[in-house]
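Input record, target 12 of the design panel.
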């Protein structure tokens, strides 16, 4: 009976350690990638946005049906955000977050809102899948794919995904 109790205690400690280790990595990813990504969109800061991606980025747009490298992808944002006066917000919810010490795969739903909190507010939704790599101690986006899946991704899709900080779901 004592051995059984010790076994369950050891299992609990191991599970707790693994959960907290998972949470720590996901918090680090959020701080390195998703929070600055949001800031870049909300401030139209293409330099910050560029720094979130690896130099050999592969960007796939399901809607535009094209593949770009980092230079072309970031140049598009630089042009779009240059002298941009419109307000926008972006937020993320997740379907899956898998990682090891050097790589991560994250899938989810984003919500991009133009002119938030106004009568002209308009939201757009899409499904994303990114592959992250740790570069010099920082998580960066190496592969980025998104699609509205023929306009089937919507507010319900977004609300059914998990909140960024709901680490227990992953």
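The sequence produced for target 12 reads:
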């Amino acid at each position: 009976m004592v051995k059984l109790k010790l076994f369950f205690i050891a299992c609990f400690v191991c599970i707790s350690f693994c959960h907290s280790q998972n949470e720590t990595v996901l918090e680090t990813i959020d701080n390195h990638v998703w929070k600055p990504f949001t800031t870049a969109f909300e401030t139209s800061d293409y330099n910050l946005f560029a720094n979130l991606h690896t130099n050999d980025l592969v960007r796939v747009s399901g809607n535009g049906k094209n593949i770009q490298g980092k230079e072309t992808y970031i140049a598009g944002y630089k042009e779009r955000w240059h002298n941009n006066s419109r307000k926008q917000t972006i937020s993320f919810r997740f379907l899956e977050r898998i990682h090891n010490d050097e790589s991560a795969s994250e899938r989810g739903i984003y919500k991009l809102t133009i002119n938030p909190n106004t009568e002209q507010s308009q939201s757009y939704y899409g499904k994303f899948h990114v592959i992250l790599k740790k570069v010099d101690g920082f998580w960066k986006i190496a592969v980025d794919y998104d699609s509205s899946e023929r306009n089937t991704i919507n507010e319900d899709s977004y609300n059914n995904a998990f909140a960024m900080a709901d680490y227990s779901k992953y």
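The chain has one domain: 2-164.
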